[in-house]
From TrEMBL:
Name the record gives this protein: DNA-(apurinic or apyrimidinic site) lyase
CDD domains noted in UniProt: AcNei2_N
Catalysed conversion reaction: 2'-deoxyribonucleotide-(2'-deoxyribose 5'-phosphate)-2'-deoxyribonucleotide-DNA = a 3'-end 2'-deoxyribonucleotide-(2,3-dehydro-2,3-deoxyribose 5'-phosphate)-DNA + a 5'-end 5'-phospho-2'-deoxyribonucleoside-DNA + H(+)
InterPro entries documented for this protein: DNA_glyclase_Znf_dom_DNA_BS, FPG_cat, FPG_N, H2TH_FPG, Nei2_N, Ribosomal_uS13-like_H2TH, Znf_DNA_glyclase/AP_lyase
EC number(s) on file: 4.2.99.18
Location of the FPG-type domain: 222-257
Family: Belongs to the FPG family.
Lineage: Bacteria, Bacillati, Actinomycetota, Actinomycetes, Kitasatosporales
Amino acid sequence: MPEGDSIYRVATQLDQALAGHVLTVSDFRVPAHATADLRGRQVLGTVPRGKHLLTRFEGGVTLHTHLRMDGRWQTFRPGERWRSGPAFQIRAILGTEHGTAVGYRLPVVQLLRSDQEYRVVGHLGPDLLGPDWDAAEARRRLLADPRRPVGEALLDQRTLAGIGNVYANELPFLAGVTPWLPVGELPDPDDLLDGARHLLDANKLRPGHVTTGDPRPGSQHWVYGRGRRPCRRCGTPIRTGRHDRDRTAYWCPRCQRGPGPTA
């Protein structure tokens, strides 16, 4: 599932293709909205909220989409050939005279009133890339259950909006703790939150989720995806385990203090 910085980048691409222009194409290929027609409405813009996308139109209508694991938005210039996937995978098409956005394999395509957006994103915690970031509220939610493992808390979108499995592994490494350390034992929760916001902000307009400062392929991460390979700091083989929702966890047993995965 894409991280919040990837969703921010998708929102930026949709904005560049559609915002400020009037829809000439409106095609929703999902049963719930197959007859909906937004042609003639101006696209006000697309905003990311954690891992959710909210595309707003004049008249108080919002399109809510979520990519989950396989969904993707692709934008095209006028007259450009679509080369991103077969037609049967298309779930939504939004077009103007200036560009077209095509949504492939979107698992969530939902039209709702703009004043009802809270129904789909109101449960989320503070958005790490949002203009209304609230560090105090993020800290409160992170520490609400002191016994909860760090990795599990980071992956819970009700705690923070925008973190996926890449950062749920990289952030504990940078904090020097394992993903299974209880959040109540974090040496500096504020430092963890500041690091999360810094990393997502640094990567929001580039691909790769770079956490090491080295964008070269194979060098972007400290531990994520590096099972059995030597730790970049100490040379100890990176171990793997499981944490929240059976996702793969990576950690260095020498650089990171705390418990390992439970049996």
